Amino acid sequence: MVAIADSGSTKADWAFIEAGRSPIQLQTRGFNPVFHDEKFILSELQGRIGTTIDRTAVSKVYYYGSGCWDDKRKSVVRRALQSFFPNAAFLDVQHDLIGAARATCGADPGIACILGTGSNSCEYDGKDVVDNVTNLGYLLGDEGSGTHLGKMLIRAYFYREFPRDLLDEFRALCPGGKREILDQIYEGEAPNLYLASFARFCSKHREHPFVQSIVGKAFGVFLDRHVLKYPGHRSLPIHFIGSIAFHFRQLLDACCRSRGLQLGKVVKKPIDHLIQFHREQEKLERAS
């Protein structure tokens, strides 16, 4: 059995595949080794997957996760996976950008972008990531993401820039006012998830001119600061994964077209595409 996981900071989608059988799909909380240790990851796996899947039957694991950008952070996830899947002879832990590229580009060149809780991007040659404009995380970067939208909404609220018809509804999201918000951001366990939670407000009011303006500005910053820096941005399709990109596809398309960019695939959850990718890889391995 082969296990495939795509993990953002909020949630992780899992698929367990065997030749000739339909995949088993499950969901757990997301793991980010920047915020979560080996013990947390293992506990989540035991509680959510251990009761459903025969973990001793898993021989290969492909894990794509946010925060897995260097060996130190990858090793946190790898140790937890090795403990949970004791018979896995092959265990591959990759950054979620690799998963985004494989899910959208497959074996073709392209630019793959993530717009979910956080954001990231890369240029892909059909096999490897060949360029990546640095992502500085939710404090300094994550342009176009849920955390970015959350910060923009909070600033607009406290700087008295909110439209009157949305004011009361947004105020109800933070009854404790400034103190509640700052405590969550500066002292909370997952400030990035807290900020991104406000993006649901944008999704609910996606047709409102105020929300359209905020999201359009956020997308513009992401495209200008990241996508336009890649040498292939004029010739390659620009693919996106993540809930923010998915729910605001029309606006994203308009922002791309205004910059002469070719919008490619927009995928909410890449797990189905990763299943297809790895099934094809398994067939190639058996054929060789």
* CATH class wording of the domain at 2-101 and 270-287: Alpha Beta
- Rounded to the nearest angstrom, the distance between the terminal CA atoms is 19 Å
Q: Let me know the largest β-sheet.
A: 5 strands, mixed
CATH fold-level topology of the domain at 2-101 and 270-287: Nucleotidyltransferase, domain 5
Q: What is the number of helical segments per DSSP (H or I, 4+ residues)?
A: 13
* Percentage of residues in helical conformation: 40-55%
Overall mean pLDDT: 89
Provide an overview of this structure.
- By secondary structure, the protein is an alpha/beta fold.
- The protein has a domain at 2-101 and 270-287: 2-Layer Sandwich (Nucleotidyltransferase, domain 5), CATH 3.30.420.
- The protein has 13 helices and ten strands.
- It has helices at residues 38-48, 71-84, 96-104, 137-140, 146-158, 164-171, 177-187, 191-197, 199-204, 209-225, 243-247, 249-257, 271-287, and strands at residues 2-7, 11-17, 24-29, 60-65, 90-95, 110-115, 119-124, 129-131, 237-241, 262-267.
- A five-stranded mixed β-sheet has the order 3-2-1-4-5, sandwiched between helices.
- A hairpin with a 6-residue loop joins strand 2 (11-17) and strand 3.
- The longest helix is centred in the last third of the chain and has 17 residues, at 209-225.
- It is globular.
- 40% of the residues are buried.
